[in-house]
Amino acid sequence: MYLAIYSYPTAEQQVLIFNEPSGSGSNFTSMRATSQDTDVSYFLPDTQGVENSVLFNDGSGNLTWASMETFASSFVYNVTVIVTASYNVRPEDNHVIVDNSSAATIALPSASTLRGKVYFVKKISDTGGPRNVTVDPYGSETIDGDATYLLDKLYEGVMIVSDESNWYIMSEIAR
User: Fold this and answer.
1) Are 164 and 87 part of one and the same domain?
2) Where are the extended beta strands (E) located within 39-166?
3) Around Cβ 36, how many Cβ atoms within 10 Å?
4) Same domain flag for 167 and 93
């Protein structure tokens, strides 16, 4: 492999170019920086990755090798939790399935930092008073203007979305 750094006088930009191996053609891969507010450095790992591994950036420029499974799992958006009692919903959760034997409160995080975040909450326990599930927004936030949302029937559920101030019902699930 041949490595070259070119400076284009008209663009005042340096380009890192990786040429194809000799005899394979005249194509190349280039890397160039765009306008940025600060210096950006990447630190390569000191070992070679295994087959089908990818470079993973920790957000500070430290690159490590990761398997495709590890890499793909970092993009999981459909985190489902199954709870049997009251639960504080985490920002990374998406689906909360409630199989409770007594009253339970599903406490939502603040809508203020979760614009566009969608949660699905579904009750799969028997119906009736002691097994009601209350979906409770953070502080003074509301769900469609109400202080809480009650799930009191078997297989009942609700899909809600944040607008950074409150939660809004997108869909109600009833059986």
Assistant:
1) yes
2) 53-57, 63-67, 79-83, 87-88, 93-98, 104-107, 118-123, 133-136, 149-151, 157-162
3) 7
4) yes
Task: Find out whether 160 and 135 touch, Cβ atoms under 8 Å.
Answer: yes
Domain region containing 119? 79-173
pLDDT tens digits, residue range 154-165?
999 999 999 999
- Does the predicted TM-score (pTM) go above 0.90? no
Type of residue at 116? G
Dig out the tokens for 93 from the structure.
Answer: 């959760």
Whether residue 102 contacts residue 130, with contact meaning beta carbons closer than 8 Å, is answered with yes
Q: Which residue, chain included where needed, has tokens 């599903």? A: 106
Place of tokens 């203007």: 145
Eight-class DSSP state of 37: S
